[in-house]
Amino acid sequence: MKKYYFLFLGLSLLLASCSNDDNGIKPGPTPDPDPTADVAAQNFMWQAMNLWYFWQGDVPDLADDRFSTNAEYTAFLESYPDPENFYYSICNDHERIVGEEAAIDRFSFANEDYKELVNSLSGISQSNGLEFRLSYIGNTNDVFGYVLYVWPGSNASTKDIQRGDFFTRVDGIQLTDSNYTELLFGNNSTYTLGMATVENETISNNDKEVQLTKIENQIEDPILIAETLDVNGTKVAYLMYNRFLSSFNEDLNDAFAKFKTDGATELVLDMRYNPGGNVNTSRLLASMIYGTKTQEVYIRQRWNSKVQAAFSDASLTDYFESNTPPPANSPINSLNLNRVFVIATNGSASASELVMNGLEPYIDVIHIGTTTRGKNEFSITLVDDPDQDLPFLYSSSREGDINPNNSWGIQPLVGRNENADGFYDYTSGLVPDITLGEDLTNLGVLGNVNEPLLARALQEISGGSAKIDFTVRMPAESFTSSRLHTPVKDNMYLDKPLKFNK
Predict the structure, then answer these.
(1) 182-195 residue pLDDT tens
(2) CB of 403 within 8 A of CB of 386?
(3) Alpha carbon distances (Å) from 27 to 46, 52, 68, 415, 467
(4) In this structure, are strands 143-150 and 130-136 parallel, antiparallel, or unpaired?
(5) What is the spatial distance between Cα 33 and Cα 28, in angstroms, rounded to a whole number?
(6) Using one digit for the tens of pLDDT, what is the confidence trace for 103-134?
(7) Pairing between strand 434-435 and 190-199?
């Protein structure tokens, strides 16, 4: 569990850096609920969101003067007996309330067990190790799934299932848009997939079945592939990186050490399935690509007006880094590149997009794939622990201070990151330089030079004119994925020390 501890070191340091400062962030006068009312979770959520939420000033129900009396405040909290519904109601036009098209906040979320939320941020979850997407069968409500990849060392890795396989049924029941959540992401730790085949762009059931079991405390290594390819004499590093996890920072640095030893002069960074994660890890990866130029700005943070003024400019600015975080403090292994080829799709979000945007002012970022998700906000983990310099902010060192009668944790969007040029507006996603989607009839083998998206990147690097057919016959479209049904989803979270203005 050593890696699990280090995920929260950033937050522990953050609190330590503020503990000797008399300023802190002090919420203004806020209402108090009737102590006899059963609204502990709702009260925590409102108080925390009133202080930290990025759009606090835009949500009338979060206004400082919203309630004239404690009785009015209590009645408001009691009008939402379900804490989860209450939480999304006080977000800024959340997707859960107004739908995807009209949503402003698409990514804030809550979890009734903050410990599950905290574990998920380190890559620890209950999982069978199968990553997949779901799509509709024609114009029906029926659903099929297709496998993206399998976690090494997982339950799925021991079964006869692999990338490019299709399934339509769970425990003999046809998947539909109304039952897939319960069947695939419910409390059932074991289920059996009914497999299918695709021929002439038509999906058909077959008799094959694969039983999978979700394992507690399963950890995904985000570095799925790290290899150096020889492309007509050019050494090309290929990294398939599937989540930004601080617990694997040293492994990531070791991968770049191997790239350097191999003499790599180009890099293909494959983040097509990377939904994001740790902000500081994104900074380390960017430094491994571009260089350890510690005087050059990587990103700047923008918080709400209550919080922004409390922090120093230095703590709100991230520079490229020369070392991994303590206790390792390993020198960053950088390729010092002037360009990078990034494979990114709609499955690429938050910290993945942050790397691309943060590098853009300095090097040529050649984006191959499709438009990314468009998540430029970051979040923090808040729990019912108000009596500290940074009220409600989770710290592993303060487990004993969290209200034992309220286990809810929330992960609200609290700020945006902008690059050195001040650019941050990519809520519609980052548009590719070279558009190429995945093809369900030819997903290929990840890391193989003939896999279509990698092949297109290598063609660009080599300048080759060989005739390769990149026609997409059956686009790999989807309406959801296994990634989006984990507690952490496609979240980008902050874990750096913040210093107050004095």
Answers:
(1) 999 998 999 999 99
(2) no
(3) 12, 10, 17, 18, 63
(4) antiparallel
(5) 16
(6) 999 889 999 999 988 887 766 778 999 999 99
(7) unpaired
